[in-house]
Amino acid sequence: MSDAALVEVEITLTGGRSFQGALPCDSPILASLFTSLAASHDPDPNAPVTLLQFPLEGGNAACSFMSTSLVSVVTRPPVLINPQQPATHALPVETPASFASHVVIEDFLTPDENRQVLEYALENEAHFEGSGVLTHEGQSKDETSRRSRVLFAIHGSKWNDVFLQRLKLHLSHIAPALGLDAMRLVPKEIQLTASNDGDFFKAHVDSGNVNDDVVKRVLTFVYYLHKTPRPFSGGDLLVYTGYPNTDPSQQSMATIAVPPRNNTLVAFVSNTTHEVDVVRCPSGEFGDSRFTVNGWMQYA
Amino acid sequence: MFYTVFSTDDCADMQWQSELLEHSWKKVGQQGVLVRLVATRTPDRLPSHKDARCVATRFLDTHSGTGPIRKRPASLMEWAFRDRPEGTVLIVDPDCVFRAPVTQYVAPDFPISQPWHGLEAAEPGDANPFGFGERFAFLKDHCARVDLQADAVTSPTLIHTRDLRKIAARWLQLYYAIMDNSAVQDEPGLREADRLAYLAACAEYGLRHSERDLAVDADGDRESAPDAPLLTYCQPIHDAEGRVLFDKDTYRPWTRVDGGVEARGSSGQDFVATINGFIDARVDEMPQIARNSHPSRYPAVKEGRVLDQTLLELPEKGLSVWLNNTGSAVWELCDGSSTVDGICQTLAQEYEADDEVIFKDVMATLNNLNASGFLVVR
Question: What percent of chain A has pLDDT over 70?
């Protein structure tokens, strides 16, 4: 799966039918579209007519058409085409397979482990700090995009190993379900997050092209833990099921709500658009927060 | 849904056990599906079965041990999460047969298992994790708590798929922890790692088993557990004189067990009747080779000789067969130039035996080899 920035693509075929989707800017499909378009203006009678496929609905469907049927390609933002590169033939067609948007694992830890992680979170309340978002300029405390508190120290605790070792055992089924290669996945980062009254995280992708480190994220996991009965409402993880898109303001994209259930882990591909719905915690007590152990894996 | 599940790899030795279990499963009319988990590096070349559903799982290069049981937690976990079965799972060892159908379904949180009479029942604690004994003290480094009492149960087990998914990763993780620890590198410790890890995982998740005799030892008497629906033949079966009548480790696959001598126990007699019924049914179902046909050896067959016996292996089907002296002679003559009658004549001259006896032996050998794919007949 490409980590390159996504561009919105609209193609128009003979007869006037148009289709919209999103593709990584380095996608061979995008190159094929431009190559076919260029070839149609200077037809080579010896060149083969190629079958092209354009992914729709996040890869769950595809529009197939002959290269000669392509009338125009609109991209947002504009994509630079190298005029020095002759369009001799279409690049290989890439057909996206259909994979799950996310995987849910209930009872991820044993009940005693689950209780002890919550105790660890409560004991370390003083070490939680305000969360931020990563931009090209570095870490930013942008409270219009995200509000929560984070404990980075879990990375050096025994819980780091507990989570990653348990997760590693699950990769044999998580990775194929998400279209990832289990054998190449290695741990990257882990953190403990507390979300209390009014906290949220607006739609985003975890592998945004903001720095070399973040762009390497391939698999995201979120483990929920909280007191029982649950002392807050809201806080659902909203997983966007449309094709990964860097424009999270697209409200037309369908989402699946994954409620925060104690001792449940959710895993998804890091370039999946997702958000955290607003948490409502009437007590405002730290111990009543929606806690998550969240982290990432990357390819070795 | 009811799933009867057993775990194997794709080595040839597992095929006769798997087919025997399949035969008995079918014969007693067991409800549901029979699932053979096959840990393999070649998932596109699974063993073939008439009724069992073969499911490929990853072949683990590390922690794989030497036997299919040792791959069981990994295979079960992969199957449970990837295929998402829903219902009751009867987990059995490959070396067992059905003598009656299992009719009991289980609900989540209510597994049922065979009592393990030999397991210690000492007070659990740091020095005695889960009641397993002092040599498992290292488990306290791997567990949030070890003062939990494990149930004294063993395979076979009836468990709901949701419970299986709940404990699967922990079962596998503790299994690795036990396998990796030098304190239990002796054979009994390794053999029990799978069961102990399962029990510890269940204890951690608060899963308590009801005990029920699901299986009886085939070297014993059926009266010791008259309602047990399964027979296990992991131990040798003896005759009335104490001689070994059947031992799975030395059994020559696809052959009858000597019917002239009775097993000392009624369960052993049941088992011998089952395996001989399996072999007879297999022979009956075989296509018969015509006497004027020309059998030749299938090129992919691998051969090996030990004294006067020949071992044939067909890796693509996961099959192997041992041939005795006569069988080896038949095999050598299958070069495509001789007809079946010609082979019989050659052997009759060589062994100076009755033509009818020779013909029966040759036909039995050829039909068996042909049915398994070791021969090409034209």
Answer: 75
